[in-house]
Amino acid sequence: MTRHNGSRGRAALSLAVLAVAMSVPQQASAQAARPATIQATVAITNVTVIPMDRERTLADQTVIIRGGRIETVGDAARTSVPADATRMDGRGKFLMPGLAEMHAHVPPGNPTDEQLNDIMFLYVANGVTTIRGMLGAPYQIELRRRLASGELLGPRFFAAAPSLNGNSAPNPAAAVAAVRAAKAAGYDLMKIHPGLSLETWDAAVAELKAQGMTFAGHVPAAVGVVHAMQSGIATIDHVDGYLEASVRDSSVHRTPGSTMGEMIESIDNVKFRELAEMTARLGVWNVPTMYLWENFYGNRSPEELGALPEMRYAHPDQVNAWKSQRRNRSLGDANQGLTPERRERYLLLRREMLKALADAGAPLLMGTDSPQMFNVPGFALHRELQVARAAGLSRYQVLESGTRNVGRYVASSLKQDGAFGTVAAGQWADLVLLDGNPLEDLENLTRRSGVFVRGRWVSAAEITEGLNRLAAKYAALRQGGDE
Ligand SMILES: [Zn+2]
After folding, report:
1. Beta-strand pair 58-66/69-75
2. How many whole angstroms separate alpha carbon 16 and alpha carbon 464?
3. 8 Cα to the center of ligand 1, angstroms
4. Strand 94-97 relative to strand 431-434, pairing
5. Is the separation of the CB atoms in 368 and 237 below 8 Å?
6. DSSP at 364
7. 27, 119, 101, 107: which is closest to 314 by C-alpha?
8. Which is the most buried residue in 49, 73, 127, 238, by most CB within 10 A?
9. Interval 379-426: pLDDT, tens
10. Strands (E), 41-187
11. How many angstroms separate the alpha carbon of residue 92 from the centre of ligand 1?
């Protein structure tokens, strides 16, 4: 591994060398060899800024980006463009912060650089400049550094540790040992999966607090959402635990043999408001991952889902695996008493719970759980925000969950540099330049002129080229598979 320990100049030189060295084995990946000039000074003139500090737009601005950060945001008429800046005409365009995928599953094991390049490119191509990895693996500590240094083009990356769950933490001692190992390895947070006993949960929480580490993810059934929140869980993902806590008869989802279908029948949405208010009061974040549940329980067949346009950019083996997962799930649904009516009701209740959280002012973060079932990295986020919108959130609330809130979460919960997610002087230049206003139509988020990744401009042409290269690679694999 190359070590970066020199001055800025030396770091820049190693990046240039790496860009050349990396181009050889990666010709097939989505990213082309990158120029060494990663952080040029850029002036975007006469652009409409969507600062995301509150719901407003600022017309006719000049934004100057230097050294990876926003140096100036000012009225175009009064802001002079530095002589060394590359000018970009922003007329008719909208500049907003990059989006975030706060529940990414970056592959475990040891993915190749080509695989990592392709995944990270999909995020950038979709305007995603921050991800939080929620499926930890040891190599991701190094991956985080490579992304931060610009050695690998991609979003900034916060890495959760391999999860605490019923297998990794079968008892309190095992949980404490796992927490200590995660802290020593340098992960940013602890991921929680189902299966922890209440006793193990409490021991883990005590150790996490002693280690100064936040924890996030699922709500184990034995813990329940109320106790999880009172324990200080930082983010609840997948709206986990809320519906279970809203059943009229709490024996229904605890009794062995009772089905999910019966649980759904027993949910009383009157309880949503109280739970949402408690969430807001305790300042617990939610990453609702709504779109994945639509894929789990919605009416679209595996074939329909597998034929969505973004499936071009997923490995054919992956798409086939998703299809068989979806078919197996349908079989399991029957055993769980999940009739089509109950599945529909379940999805509706999840939307109602999300709306209750938003109405109560509980803080929300955007995330999809990609690449879980039919969630293509980056593309899935644009499906997610449509579901959040359909649940009744305003466009601004949806955008805020993927921008400003993310910077706030990183600063307040992870205690790290959260200087992104708004467009203002001093913030990191993680930005998307759009051809339409997303506050008027969220579809405009897909009309991109380009993306800034910490000041490094990735143009629409570069994005299209990379996506085409990826689609061609996977199309060739599909052809090969048919022979
Ligand atoms: Zn997950």
Report:
1. antiparallel
2. 24
3. 37
4. antiparallel
5. no
6. B
7. 119
8. 127
9. 999 999 999 999 999 999 999 999 999 999 999 999 999 999 999 999
10. 42-49, 58-66, 69-75, 86-89, 94-97, 99-104, 128-133, 156-164
11. 39
